[in-house]
Structures are given as C-alpha cells and as structure tokens.
Amino acid sequence: MKATPVPGVRQYAHGLPAHPHAGPSPGPRPRPVRAAKRWACLAGLLWLPLLAGAQELPVTPRQRLPRGHERGVMVGYGAGQVNEFRYDVVFLMAHLAVEMGRRENRPEGSSRFTVYLEPQANLVMTKNNDFEFGINVGVQYMFRLSPKVHPYLLAGAGPHFITVKTERQANGYIFSDNVGAGVCIFTSPGTALSVEVRGRHLSNAGLEKPNSGINSHIVQVGYRVFLRDLRP
C-alpha cells in the first residue's frame, strides 16, 4: 500500500518518512574533488607495473648507484596564482631516463647524468576542471650521499597544451620550463622512493597574447625502478 505523504515531513524516495532529526541530505561533491579522486586512482594503477619490475637488480654487499635506464611515476601538487584565482594543479607524470656517457669511464657508485622524458597529464583545480597535457625533456645529475640516499638536480623544458582561460596567459599551446632538486631513498639496489621540489614557468614565447606567464611551486613524490644497463 502506498504511503500517504505527511505535510511538513521529508519523504525518502521509497515513500517512508525521514528520521525527524535527520539533517538535510548532502549535495553532490564539488567537481574538482571528484576529479582529484579519479586522478589519484589512476596514479595508483600506474604504479602496478613498476612494482612488478621491482627486482630488476641483484642485491650487492654495498649499496651503489645503479647504472643504465630508469623508469618511474610521480604524483604531486603545484600552487600558483593568476589574476582571477589560485592556479592549483594535481600532477601525474611518468619518468623515463637513460644514462649519459660510458659507465666504464667512471667508478661504480659515482655520480651520474641522465637524460629524461616526462609525459604528463595534469588536473587544474578550477570549477571547470581544466587540464594540462604535455611532455618535458631534461637532464638530471644524481650523486651518492650515503648508501641509500642519493640527491639530484634537474632542469628541463617541453611543449604543453592548457585549457584554462585567464587574463594573464593565453590558453592552447605553451612551453613549460622546470628546475628542481630532490632525493632518491633506495629501498633496494634497484628501487627507490623519490621526493622533490620544482619551480615551473608556463608561457608561449610571445606566440599569443597575453603572455605574462604562470609560475608554480611544485612538490612531488614518486617511485623509480633502475634497470640493468641495456648496452653491450
């Protein structure tokens, strides 16, 4: 039998009255929050293939700086400011690197230079859930501070595409310039956790107006797998 609505009493969808002390039903979550949670889930899925390859290098008596290629994934947060609002970004990027030079010319465990490639898809936390897509190419210098702690410096640049609209910077194709510093903390001879900070500048080299640029301060964490040297 269908329940008869009672004036002044909030009804559930199936017709039963709500609890008299129940508060207002929660509304939908803000779109930026939902999008950030989807980004976090995607980042977790990208870590799975790295965990599968975590035993690439044998354990040695002394922890040394691994040689050859490396791969990794990083997530992070960047804060900036444009004229109309805060430019907050959730970063999701891959890190692929190849060592420069011939390793036989340097002692095992010494510093190393790598050339890296970082494809990325980033969420800009606006009410419209804007995005950044792009790729960075750069160089990284890593040195051995202790058996498990290896700091590094990096610098890179690359083409990007942004959808956000602001009076400060034209959207569309743009260039990203990055400098940063971080540290790898090795959990085994072939795997490491990374923590880093970066400064980033977005602008389009005067191809479109306005071109005042967008600056961001970024903090990222990541996981890296150091592979065997693939060269003969």
TrEMBL record:
Please list where the region (Disordered) is annotated.
1-33
Please note every region of biased composition (Low complexity): 13-22
UniProt xrefs under Pfam families = PagL
Matching entries from InterPro entries are given as: Lipid-A_deacylase-rel, OMP/PagP_B-barrel
The name this protein goes by in its record:
Outer membrane protein beta-barrel domain-containing protein
Source organism of this protein record: uncultured Cytophagales bacterium
